[in-house]
Amino acid sequence: KPVKQEGLMLKKRKWPMKGWHKRYFLLERGILTYAKTGNDLKKGRLRGRIDVGLSVMAVKKKSLCIDLDTEDSIYHLKAKTRDLFEQWVTELRHHRMFRQNEIAMEPPERQLQSDPSSNRRVLTLLIQSSITSVCESGLLELNLLLKNMEVLHRTFSAPAINLLQVGLFGLNMCLCFGLCGWDVPDGSRPLLQQVSSESRGSIPESLSEFFDAKEYLLSGSSSENEVSDDDSYISDVSDSMSVEYCRNENGITKAILSNGNDCALKRRDRLPSSRMNESVNLWSILRSNIGKDLSKVAMPVQLNEPLNTLQRLCEEVEYSHLLDTAVNTHDPHMRMVRVYIAAFAISAYACSFTRAGGKPFNPILGETYECLRPDKGFRFIAEQVSHHPPVSACHCESKNYTFWQDVRWKNKFWGKSMEIVPMGVTHLELPGFGDRYEWSKVTSCIHNILSGQRWIEHYGEMSIKHSTTMGDVSHCKVTFLKVGSGGLNANEVEGVVTDSHGRVIHSLFGKWSEALYLGKPPSVTCIWRANPTPEDHEQYYGFTQFAIELNELEEGLKPLLPLTDTRFRPDQRLLEEGDIAGAEEQKERIEVLQRERRRVLQENSMTHSPRFFKRAEDDSWVSNGTYWDVRKDPGFSKLEFPVLW
Length: 645
Prior knowledge:
One of its GO terms (cellular component) is plasma membrane. By secondary structure, the chain is an alpha+beta fold.
């Protein structure tokens, strides 16, 4: 009989993946129960109960995580320290073995009264772990397992042990030919774990335990019966493409790819200054502009965030790994490819969730921005190609995809809220397939402009058109739901992927601010999940880690950029540094310069010609393909650019 183990651990919420919560756990006689506190546990206010003997345990030593799969549900637990982790793992092993022996040694009369599936599940777990052992250690290990199982023949009737041996022999053959489909025979007695220390050395430390298990694509239902927890299990494939940001002793952040590679790029993890709170009488500015396009109305710099619209366009490719995943998905019918494209289109809105408090700077005509990210595998350029109407164009390319768009907005103030209506089409091409995707953005609305807590919502239908080289056309329709009364449907999206005949082949749902799921509850798979925001993001304009990096200007980068690059813009730089008065002064000066340049062009009957973009046949703006070549030779420092600031 193992000793009782109890104490606090973290438990992961399943729906909608809202992080970790403290729970008080008690492990006794192979049963793990938990509650919010120790007192709640003593009073019987349980939040859940897990039979450890009927669970498969996965241990992740690096992250101090313990996963318990009870077949009906998967529990994710986490210890605070290494010592606690090892203590819990040790005790869970002992209790699991004790509990499995207890089930195995139940007299036949009690087994008839109990659920017969429990006994079969013990055997199933053992066989499943045998399969895992085969995959990791080869068929020879399975033969050793057979010998060890023969030691336990006393608890089996003769037909049952024969069936087990025949089944494992069949499993050998199935594995050799890449097949596997084998049901546990009914009527078999449970397997008693009573292996000698000599024989145990040739099998895993615990037959149904996986160590440092990888996260595979799973699907299944869950019924944890915990108050406030949804009874669904969500598989997650998005973690495998994530980027982890680690801060070193100097406070500098560098990106660590999920495959363990250090991309050796040191980036800042916070802005030079937090947001300065200075009151602005918005009503005096907006009252005479109700129903008008606010893009032509000068706003005080206090309403801005230290980023530019061109940089905001770059934020839309933060989750470019979804495009890499789409390209590398082996799907002859391109069905899952379209799912990842849809996830990418939705992910572009995630950064706006915490950004309702400020607006980006309006780019100056001819202003440019570049973002070169070897760690993400792309290079991005943007340019303000028109002033009236204001049009921003961008182009992003990698070995897997080419992404481009030109965007113009109409901002309208309706008295309490401001509506942002985007125009233009977003284009994506996958050179490896020759396929093209096109979609338009949905409407955005910022509420409580004048008073109260500002918040943003996006609503409307996004139709993603997929055109193949063969002329086939299919669609993915994503609906951004409008918030109902009491916050109903807040941030929610729903979508379907259809084939060329209009038949639905995939269903999607989730929140543009959090995550996107494939399938229908209770069996769903997480396709994308938003990166966590920095702990103090409220003090720094609600910026994500990716946004924090966009305006960083390293000394080694300065001579490589054109003087029109956003990072040289003084008003935006001064606001980032917390100098509001200086930023306002520079903003007014830059606006005067822009009006003067426009007057000179009009007087000489001249028009502005963008430097790095050109008009396409469909009247959209596309890259002229010169930026990176000129950057390399002769270099921007040897060229003349207009004085923008």
